[in-house]
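Tokens for chain A. Residues wanted.
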């Protein structure tokens, strides 16, 4: 087997987001949900822990292999909300649907998932009431077929 050889970093061709302001979350089953995003954490990628492949035949190093599957991590955020959102939440909590994340440059990521949690924070005089929310990404459509997220970048990104 060959020893590793260094690779030189190349300047990426894309355009980074310049500001996180204006990242919205749209729930497919309720696109006008009575929340106002203040912080949004879109899904990331995670392969999980490495697989230990060490055996009694190893002589100096533990060996590992990458897992085969990729997980789209949970999304989350902080929002202002209309108290009337309670009735809307009853209809969408725990329901698998398309969740769309839209960044301020207009790019979108559509992914299957469900709203797992909506937790109002302490109400304090002189402060804007907020709630935290958590979205679990399922990567399965309504027929339970595996579906990857669909990313649409705007021109120039």
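Reply:
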């Amino acid at each position: 087997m060959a020893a590793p050889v260094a690779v030189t970093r190349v300047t990426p061709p894309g355009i980074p987001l310049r500001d996180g302001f204006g990242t919205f979350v749209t729930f497919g089953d309720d696109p006008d949900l009575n929340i106002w995003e203040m912080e949004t954490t879109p899904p990331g990628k995670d392969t999980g822990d490495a697989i230990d492949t060490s055996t009694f035949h190893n002589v100096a190093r533990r060996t590992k292999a990458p897992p085969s599957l990729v997980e789209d991590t949970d999304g989350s955020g902080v929002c202002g909300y209309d108290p009337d959102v309670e009735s809307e939440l009853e209809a969408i909590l725990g329901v698998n649907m398309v969740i769309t994340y839209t960044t301020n440059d207009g790019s979108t990521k559509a992914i299957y998932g469900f709203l797992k949690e909506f937790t109002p924070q302490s109400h304090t005089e002189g402060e804007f009431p907020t709630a935290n929310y958590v979205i679990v990404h399922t990567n399965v459509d309504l027929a339970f077929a595996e579906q990857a997220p669909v990313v649409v970048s705007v021109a120039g990104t």
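Residues 85-92 form the longest helix (8 residues). The domain at 24-152 is CATH 2.40.30 (Elongation Factor Tu (Ef-tu); domain 3).
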